[in-house]
Amino acid sequence: MAHRTLLTAGLLLGGLGLAPAALAGSTTYQSAISEVDACNQAQYLMPTKATVQGFVLKTRTDSKGATRFSCRVNWTDKANAQPTDRPILFPSKVPQPVFAGGWL
User: Fold this and answer.
1) Of 6, 40, 54, 55, which has the maximum CB count within 10 A?
2) Average pLDDT, whole number, for the chain?
3) CA 48 from chain center: how many Å?
């Protein structure tokens, strides 16, 4: 009887050790197209069942005038994670293209 109890306890503890733990992390993507493209691509790089927890968007302009957008998406794959309901806020420093003619 004692051996059966020890065997059962060992199997339970061993099974708990093999169970996958919840992960949290972030994915980052840089785009020369737009901030929306950067954040969409960063979300595509997340694990399948991950839930978005927040965004960090950075805009850089190099010496030649080319703008690069970098978006980091923070995520978790906890089963009970609540998604952030905050919209992605774009900085006002993103230059409007000249050819847009004010319609953006």
Assistant:
1) 55
2) 74
3) 11
Look up residue 29 and give its two tokens.
């993507």
Which residues 6+ apart lie within 8 Å of 93 measured at CB? 59
Name the pLDDT band for 29 (thresholds 50, 70, 90). Answer: very high
Sheet (strand 24-31) strand order: 24-31, 67-76, 51-61
Write the Ramachandran bin of 102: left for phi over 0, alpha for psi from -120 to 50, otherwise beta.
Answer: left
Distance between CA atoms of residues 29 and 41, nearest Å: 6
Residue count of the chain, please give it. Answer: 104
- What is the biggest distance separating any 2 CA atoms in the chain, rounded to whole angstroms? 83
Q: What is the pLDDT of residues 55-85, one digit of tens each?
A: 899 999 989 888 999 999 999 988 888 877 6
Give the per-residue pLDDT at 20.
57
